[in-house]
Amino acid sequence: MTTVQAVILGVIQGLTEFLPISSSGHLVLFSRLFNVQESSLIFEVMVHVGTLLAVLVVFRVEVLTLLVSFLKLLLNPKQAKVLVQEDPGCRLLAALVVGTIPAVIAALVLKEQIEQLFSSSLFVGLMLIVTGVILYATERSKGAAKGMVKVSLKDAFLIGCGQALAIVPGLSRSGTTIAAGLFRGLDKESAARFSFLLSIPAILGALVVSLGDLLAGTAMIQTGAIAAGFAAAAVTGYFAIHVLLDLVKKGRLVWFSYYTWAAGALVVILHLV
Description:
The chain has 273 residues and is mostly helical. It has 13 helices and no strands. It has one domain.
């Protein structure tokens, strides 16, 4: 992998991690386009760190609130139930924990099957088309006045099920979670913000899994490419978050459905001809 390829893949990761067009699907497709058969594991880890840094910077206020809430629960375990019911920060933290559970279960139970799907460009193309259908369906969801602090544990679990489905390549994590939030009655901005906050434990979980292999010595280290990919992912991820928040508030999430339909159809056609 050259430095130029690393920058391009880092930009793709930064954009697609947060824009509802599937980061895993695009990385599979572009890796094949560049004939990068197996990218360095440490490179994959670092571009994910870059996107994690982006979301932590954008949502630094919410992240600080979550850290304070975690300390409250840790120091007052006997009052945990009351804190979750009455404290907005603790309630949001509990919702994020519950929302993360479905993806953890799916990843543990279906790890081998999911890994096999990454070798099929046809499957990626079909799932991009499905992503478009999900995004288009949000046009019929007008949302409600339900803010993020009103997210119930049931809401969080169902949104988390959307995130669990998106572990397959080609199905957008942000697209499915935002759509699920809208269908559960969240207002547009709250659905997007909860989706982004839910990405924090998801990205951290992916990093923990990758670090296990990394410590086992399966990674090839390319310092220049790693640094370039990390920086590209962090910067583009930062701007992608702001762009998507603005588009979701304006009700333009459906725009991405046209892109994913076109991209998915092109991938399917190229696979079949």
